[in-house]
Amino acid sequence: MMNWKDYLNSSKSSINHIIKTFFFVLIFFNAAFAQIENAEDKPVKSDSVFVSTKSPWTAVLMSAVIPGAGQIYNESYWKAPIFWALSGWFVYNWVQNNNSYKENRDLYIQTSDEDYRTLRTFYRDQRDVFTIYMGLTYILNLVDAYVDAQLFDFSVDEDFLTGQPRLNLRINLR
C-alpha cells in the first residue's frame, strides 16, 4: 500500500528526471549552436555556396511555440494536423484518466474499499503514461520540424533517359 509520503517521494523522483532531461536537451542544443557558429566563422574558398532555403532552427522554434507551426513553415502542411490530432487525443485521455483517478481516490478515502484503491492506482498510472506520450509527441514534433527543414532542398529526381530514380547529393567542401 502506497502512502502519501511514498507518493511524494516518487513524484520528486519524477520531477528530478524531468529536470535532468531538460538540462541534457539544453546542453545538447547549446553544443549544436556552438558548432554551427564555429562553422560559419571559417572562410569559404568555393566560388558558389549552397544556402538552405529553410532554417532548421526557425522551424524548431516555431514548433516549440506552436506545435505544428514548424511543419507549416517547412511546407509539409499534411503533418501539422497529424501532430494536432495526436496531441488532442493524448490530452483527452489524460483528462479522462485524471478525472477517473480523482473520483476513485475520493471514493477510496470515503470507503477504504480495496477495489477503489486498485482503480485509483490504475488511473493514476494511465494518466502518467499519457503525460509521457504527450511529451514524446512534442519532442517528435520538434525533431520532425528540424529534419524536414534540413532536408527541404534535398531532391530525388527521375533520370529521363533511363527512367530510374536519381539521387542528388550536394557536398560543400570548405
SSE topology sketch:
Blueprint: H1 4-41, H2 56-65, H3 69-73, H4 79-111, H5 114-150, E1 155-158, E2 165-168
Antiparallel strand pairs: 1-2
Question: What does the model show?
Answer:
By secondary structure, the chain is mainly alpha-helical. The protein has 5 helices and 2 strands, in the order αααααββ. The chain has a domain of 76 residues. It has a two-stranded antiparallel ribbon with strand order 1-2. A hairpin with a 6-residue loop joins strand 1 and strand 2. About 3% of the residues have low confidence.
The poorly predicted ranges are 35-39
How much of the residues is beta strand, in percent?
Answer: under 5%
Output the helix-strand order. Answer: HHHHHEE
Largest sheet: 2 strands, antiparallel
Instruction: Output the structural class.
Output: mainly alpha
| Gyration radius from CA atoms, angstroms | 24 Å
Neighbour order of strands in the largest sheet? 1-2
| CA-based shape | elongated
Helix content: over 70%
Mean pLDDT: 79
How widely separated are the two ends? 64 Å
Supply the number of helical segments.
5
Number of DSSP strand runs: 2
